[in-house]
Amino acid sequence: MAIFWKHVKSSSPLLQRLKRHITGGHYLLSRSFTTTEGHRPTIVHKRSLDILHDPWFNKGTAFSMTERDRLDLRGLLPPNVVSSEVQIERFMVDLKRLEVQARDGPSDPNALAKWRILNRLHDRNETMYYKVLIANIEEYAPIVYTPTVGLVCQNYSGLFRRPRGMYFSAEDRGEMMSMVYNWPADQVDMIVVTDGSRILGLGDLGVQGIGIAIGKLDLYVAAAGINPQRVLPVMIDVGTNNTKLLEDPLYLGLQQHRLDGDEYLAVIDEFMEAVFTRWPNVIVQFEDFQSKWAFKLLQRYRTTYRMFNDDVQGTAGVAIAGLLGAVRAQGRPMIDFPKQKIVVAGAGSAGIGVLNAARKTMARMLGNNEFAFQSAKSQFWVVDAKGLITEGREDIDPDALPFARNLKEMDRQGLREGASLVEVVKQVKPDVLLGLSAVGGLFSNEVLEALKGSTSTRPAIFAMSNPTKNAECTPEEAFSILGDNIIFASGSPFSNVDLGNGHIGHCNQGNNMYLFPGIGLGTLLSGSRIVSDGMLQAAAERLAAYMSEEEVLKGVIFPSISRIRDITLEVAAAVIKEAVEEDLAEGYHEMDARELHRLSPDEIKDYVKNNMWNPEYPTLVYRHE
Ligand SMILES: NC(=O)c1ccc[n+]([C@@H]2O[C@H](COP(=O)([O-])OP(=O)(O)OC[C@H]3O[C@@H](n4cnc5c(N)ncnc54)[C@H](O)[C@@H]3O)[C@@H](O)[C@H]2O)c1
Ligand SMILES: O=C(O)C[C@H](O)C(=O)O
Ligand SMILES: [Mg+2]
Fold first, then answer.
1. What ipTM describes this predicted complex?
2. Is the CB of 288 under 6 A from ligand 2?
3. Residue 140, H or E segment
């Protein structure tokens, strides 16, 4: 306090205001003021997030690098240091463009405004925020998560107010091991990390991709009951190849092209080492990495770290559950799955993830041997941006190679390398048409007309790309062309379609949100050091079995989001049971491995339920340190 008193005249109105704070007993800072002697530094007795959350001292993105180091702020702000003029410009631009950009295709025109209101509540009062979210999950999941989160990421530089989560940038190489201690929580259970390179179907959004990590973790809290004090959204900013962002003076990230090759890997390696050093029991979910790196990083880390890739593995499980649901909806047993002819549009991280898992599931049903695995391959036709993938493809992506069709065989089917989607659908007459292409409208009227020739008694259409405007088709288009005897699922939420005469075309949401929260929670509570294939398979099977026969026959193959907390509990319990059976479970807190082994299936569910956080105000008591 001495420094403070020295510089302030006793008559100053500021002094009077500060005195009131001090006598009120809750103001813990001292502050010096500009005097006639000129500018002097302000002494603060806060660091880290406390500074960012103090409106008197916060400068947001204008904190210089030296200040960020001095005040333990490194990593708590996006990497681009900007002037106060640019800060104001960003604010004004955002204010003016709000109305123009608040639309994402057919979704809620007020979505962005609702996101802002919820986000402000999130900043003020987490318990209340999650209470609102859980109680109204059907209404607000599409705001804090897909599809609005896509719009939020696209406009993030403008929407940015208070930082949330951590930023590790290419400039932080060599510093991450210490930076990680700038995060205030000693326990972190879940990290969702992105490098912003493929945000939903919106492409490279650079540092703005942090929004997706925040949205996913909102579901971890709301659906899986992970304690919000123990989640950490992370953005790894290695630059961006998005020209618009590289040229935008208001962009908050590093304005350089993305690092690649060994330089890129070195950054991700350093990040993984840092977070697992500080929080050895954390689980890291990789989200929205471009396919090029998604598979490589998964292979690199999955046997040494507790991690999984949601787009590759979570999506695969949700698609398997949906595909099995589609078989049941035809009135056939799940074991008939290996007979389904499946056309997949999109051979990126999600498409290939689904194909690998579907092939393995078929192979298991056919006898689980090499012959079964080989013959399962012939049930899939994969079409990417260059058309049908065959062995005749030049420079074929190694991840797609196992699904490349034999040229002679294709010739017999009237197909060739690069055949268009509509040709493939016409010739194959598939049971299922599944889209993970990020191309809105790809299932054109022509493609849907061609699907009328399907040999299935009830064809299935999975338009899984996000957000809304990237869906391969809308449910209206599908039901109007193919009638009501189909199964329809989309990645983003759509309403059911009124088909007249009391008929409703049911629109399922086939989104990895039905699995990732349970995979994370189950891994955490089992104490498994890795996320095994068996654990992922158990999660998918539990989701597949969740819907009753009656619901499935009505075309309802995924639960309503209002049941997400219950389905997450079930998925987590299935993951724990599998981890125990595979001898991977090492226990969690007071539940040791031996005791976990003794639990009955019902007791496992109780154990999960008892460990889920609920948004209730705790009683607070003040004590001096
Ligand atoms: N519903 C879900 O749970 C879920 C999960 C993961 C990803 N997704 C969505 O899936 C989409 C793709 O994600 P990704 O990570 O695989 O992306 P990606 O960029 O890695 O892959 C896109 C693929 O689509 C192909 N493609 C492009 N144009 C095409 C066309 N005209 N015809 C056929 N194929 C075409 C590309 O060649 C590529 O193989 C995104 O929109 C994403 O939001 C949805
Ligand atoms: O984020 C989603 O809604 C699903 C998926 O992870 C995606 O990348 O589209
Ligand atoms: Mg994703």
1. 0.99
2. yes
3. helix 137-144
